[in-house]
Amino acid sequence: MDASTATEAPPANEFREPPREAWYCVKSAGSLAIGAMASVTVLGEQVVIGRTKLGELFALRDRCPHRGAPLSEGRFDGVAITCPFHGWRFGADGRCRAMPTLVDGEVTDPGQVKVGEFPIRESDGIIWLYLGQRPELAPPVPVLALAGKTRCRVAVSVLVEASYDLSVLSLIDPGHVGYVHNAWWWRPTATAQEKVKDFEPLPFGFRMKAHKAAANSRGYRLLGRPQTEVDFLLPGQRIERIRLGERAIINATFATPIDTRRTLLTNVLLSDLPQLMPLAPVIRWAGHAFLRQDQRILELAQQGLERKPTMLLLGQADRLAQWYFCLKRDYAAARREGTVFSNRLAPERLRWRT
Known about the structure:
17% of the residues lie in helices and 31% in strands. By secondary structure, it is of the alpha+beta class. The strands form four sheets. It has an eight-stranded antiparallel beta sheet.
């Protein structure tokens, strides 16, 4: 990858512009029940998502075109949503099916009124939403499939009062681990060691190639220092695959931009290890503790960036942040110009201390 040591400080407005042409995680706890709906916000857009009685997912703009009331506050019978204000009914395709206030003889056709709809997908128990144009050109929804049957699944989320870019950088920042996540049960600061990692490009990101887990990480040592590899994918996804013989643990974290000031961090752990089933409560506690630690430091850093919105990216430990801004900028340019995105990063070996 680009071996340049030049620092790259993105302009202030770049912190508030996550890509619209991207899939974002909006529900981590699994599938919506039949006949259920929920309100979610992504990129400042309020969206109502739901599942029909036939099991089909839908996503609509959460605003009745009549008087602006949120449709998510209405009733959903598994077929159509009834607006809480005047009873207008909208099908899962967004098209209006009834306007109760109309009387016989009025020429208005309810079917001519339509609420905006958005692409929505479900994969590995996670629901993904897309707000942009031409999703076939975007980074695909990640696949978290295990070779064996899932024995343990834990998902936790934390809402962070920080910009999207700052939150995404925490997913790929090796230098903060021993300080922000300094704990006797994980990786105490006093045990910092020099690390050497090999990276290779992916179609929409980069990969830390498979290597033996860090010796100074007590969490990994409990697993016998297994092989692990880490993918970073646009727009803000970190997927770690830990392999223990024929078994595996997938530890994925996704960043979702709620608006210009808030980011949702979601961590999902999947494993086909039967031994982890009784440990799910402990894993949930640890995952939540990690996200809370990130939340605290990110919110403090955001305060500093609001006073002066510049960063000094320095050394090989910050190269990953430089790669992220490069990928983000090139992807935005490709979508703007209507060209195919091409990842121009190249393989590189990096060294840092953590």
